[in-house]
Amino acid sequence: MLTMSGQSAGELSYGGIAMRWLRMLGLVITLSALAGCAMNTRPATYLVETSGPYRLDTGDTVRVTVYDDEALNAEYRIDDAGAIAFPLVGAIPVRGVTTETASRRIAAALANGFLRNPNVAVEVAEYRPFFIQGAVGTSGQFAYVYGMTVRAAISVAGGFSDTADRSQALLYRRQGSEMAKGSVDLDFPLQPGDTVVVLERWL
């Protein structure tokens, strides 16, 4: 009986180790994919906290209000090319600009033969999602909420796993043509499109 009990415990221990190595393998694959994105641009840099107004990007949905023509008022998703398909004028590039700049671009396009002195307002209706991988309850993409921190993102993803490093996280953020990365504390402010990787702690 003692021998059988010892074998059972050994099998459980082996199974636990195997599962942990599988999780680590998945994390390595994720990090390799992110590194591959950076290889197509300039070398990755250490992350610097971004300040200033929010800049639009693919996946964001904006709400456009044209005070001169309510028929044009609607929500528009920014496509993979970084533009919105706007009635009458077609594609308007808005990736990397603020909502104020986007409103001026739409107004300028409408003023070119469609409306006289159009008054346009643009606001973010829905942010693009963020992504989280590694030692958390559930990896994947999740809806971004304005003001979210890394700690809040981990909570949304089901919290830390039993083997997670709970002191910091690795964060990837696209800044222009670069993929910036860095180790950040849990109160670091998240942005839409960020990828958070929670590493395993080394015992």
Q: Please report the first level of CATH classification, the CATH class of the largest domain.
A: Alpha Beta
Counting DSSP E segments of at least 2 residues, the number of strands comes to: 10
CATH H-level name of the largest domain... which superfamily? Outer membrane lipoprotein wza domain like
* Overall pLDDT: 82
Radius of gyration, in angstroms, nearest whole number:
23 Å
What order do the helices and strands follow?
A: HEEEEHEEEHEEE
State the helix count.
3
What low-confidence regions span 5 or more consecutive residues with pLDDT below 50? 1-14, 37-45
> How helix-rich are the residues, as a percent range?
25-40%
Major sheet attributes: 5 strands, mixed
The separation of the N and C termini measures 32 Å
Q: What name is given to the CATH topology of the largest domain?
A: Outer membrane lipoprotein wza fold like
